[in-house]
Amino acid sequence: MRKGAKRKRSQKDNNEDEAAAVPAQDNRKTTELTKPPTRAKPVKASKPEPEYYEDKRNLEDLWKDIFPVGTEWDQLDKVYGFNWNFSNLENAFEEGGVLHGRKVYLFGCTEPQLVTFKDDSLLIHIPAVVAVPSPFPPSDKIGIKSVQREVEEIIPMKQMKMDWVPYIPLENRESQVDRLRHQIFILSCTQRRAALKHLKIERIKKYEYCLPYFYNPFKEDDLEQSTEVQIIFPSELKPIFCEFDWELDELEEFTDKLIQEDELSEDQKDAFKEFVKEKVRETKKANREAREARRKALEEMSEETKRAFEVLRFYKFYPVQTPDTPDISNVKVKRRPQGHNFTKNSF
């Protein structure tokens, strides 16, 4: 084609002109639509606030490990229903406390009492712990006594699956047990509650009537000095429960009075008198044997054991008052021990 001649416009040229005429903004939109989306930056999770727990006290679980002797099996869970605080017992083992540096034997008990807590009247089993500082176990016997039993039964602890076992404070639980010098021993019971259903009712009831039995040969037993006998006579009318004092009561008058009060029938008079005489003979014989056993025990006792008995003391601890537990200040038992057989209400 010669210079200056006109060229026929082709379809290609038309397309190029249309593309050039598209606004720049439209080009940007096209670019943005085809651009891959950007990922959102992950949000860093905030660090949780650290939780702080109070360190357990060295003897915090001591009172819970002690078997509460004489407590009904079905009431045990209720004993631990409150968060009782025995910090006073724990402090007694610290320097300056009455139990510091001593070998101590501990047993537990409970006392059913009606108390007020948060405006409600509740019958609760208040736990208590009795501490006996002693170089040797203060007893290996359990006394079983109830209203229904005519005489108290004294048996070895092991017959009731009870024994003194060492208590290991929290700070020593990572140590080898056999290398520790145990200073705290607690009364423990290995009778499994799950196995109670296989026991006879009489056997189960024995646990409810168990009482720690402590014998001090330097103190004459109250029973040795007593001239009274407990009488449970199977009368035709109804069982007769009474006490007969062989020094103060005259048997004939005593029997006639029961007949006058319609407690005893006339035809059972002689049988009743023989029954009382036999009980008096049994009691006098038991008293003589007890005095002889005490005399023999003193003769065979070492000087170290004698000194231990002479200074034997019992320390009773109730839980201290806290906002989470009932006020028991007015229901604590304040009686002192009588004789050598201590019930759960006689400390």
Automatic annotation (TrEMBL):
What UniProt keywords are attached to this protein's entry? Answer: Coiled coil
Which parts of this chain are annotated as the region Disordered? 1-51
Q: Where is the composition biased (Basic residues)?
A: 1-10
Q: Where are the transmembrane segments?
A: none
Q: Which InterPro entries match?
A: HIT4
Among the record's GO biological process terms, what is one?
regulation of cellular response to heat
Highest taxon in the source lineage:
Eukaryota
Signal peptide from the UniProt entry = none
Positions in coiled-coil regions: 273-308
- Is Coiled coil a UniProt keyword of this protein? yes
PANTHER family given for it?
A: PROTEIN HEAT INTOLERANT 4-RELATED (PTHR33704)
* Name the UniProt record assigns to this protein: Protein HEAT INTOLERANT 4-like
Source organism of the structure: Salix udensis
